[in-house]
Amino acid sequence: MTDSHFADEPVTPAGGDGLVRVRLDLAYDGTDFSGWARQPGRRTVCGVLEDTMSTVLRSDVALTVAGRTDAGVHASGQVAHADLPASVDVDGLPRRLARALPPDVRVFSARVVPPEFDARFAALRRHYEYRVTDAPHGAHPLRRLDTLAWPRPLDVAALNDASALLLGEHDFCAFCRRREGATTIRELQRLEWVREGELLTAFVSADAFCHSMVRSLVGALLAVGEGRKPAGWPASLLSLSGRSSEVAVAPAHGLSLVRVDYPADGELAARAAVTRNVRGAPA
């Protein structure tokens, strides 16, 4: 899967028949989507958004996104950008889209940003949350679509002990589905579990994530949390040169992209250049 539009070149200055770069902050319930990226014959977030925006604006729209989520993964803090005609009423765009979009996706804000802004390459870090409950009765009915029901008790101290050993810059190939030409070296900046009653939330932050990385990390850690594996086991997999067959990928519905961080406007171009050079592959 690839972004539908890489937007490597700056847009033309605003005014006349030129374009302006517009940042969109959005959220979606991933339950009925086959992920972000367009796929023939499948309902995807990008497909729905691009088609709806193109209809509303009567102009073809191509989106670049901060993080391409998999099928079933949710987002409350996704970011995308598009180059739109300068005549578009950007401030009024969320209201216009609310009347046309299906109820499981919403654009909360739209604003003009510098041409150097790139939702994908200029991002400093992405923040995810994974929700799990070990309640004997399972997930609350109102949270069943974004919370994994785990059938056995989980030890939050063991989860955090194992998580701490994974922090830092490593080759996470054991936890990633490899893509041709894509690096699996990432800097994991936060991996912390917090328990509130019978709900456990994993807070996961990194400069970028490779394919299925968060769900694979969670899957490995849950094996530690229920006592099947020792705390050092997930970190021991970092020495592998390929994906580990022992790691179970946690179900998609417990995962949400909650925030994306960007540098100050004056640092956008430099950040995008560094990311393109280092990553050269999907975030």
Automatic annotation (TrEMBL):
It is an enzyme of class 5 (isomerase). Keywords: Isomerase, tRNA processing. One of its GO terms (molecular function) is tRNA pseudouridine(38-40) synthase activity. Residues 27-121, 162-263 form the Pseudouridine synthase I TruA alpha/beta domain. It catalyses: uridine(38/39/40) in tRNA = pseudouridine(38/39/40) in tRNA. Pfam families: PseudoU_synth_1. GO terms for biological process: tRNA pseudouridine synthesis. Substrate binds at Y128. Its EC number is 5.4.99.12. Coiled coil: none annotated. The active site is at D70. Formation of pseudouridine at positions 38, 39 and 40 in the anticodon stem and loop of transfer RNAs. Homodimer. NCBIfam families: hisT_truA. Belongs to the tRNA pseudouridine synthase TruA family. PANTHER family: PSEUDOURIDYLATE SYNTHASE, TRNA PSEUDOURIDINE SYNTHASE-LIKE 1. This is tRNA pseudouridine synthase A. It comes from Saccharothrix syringae (Nocardiopsis syringae).
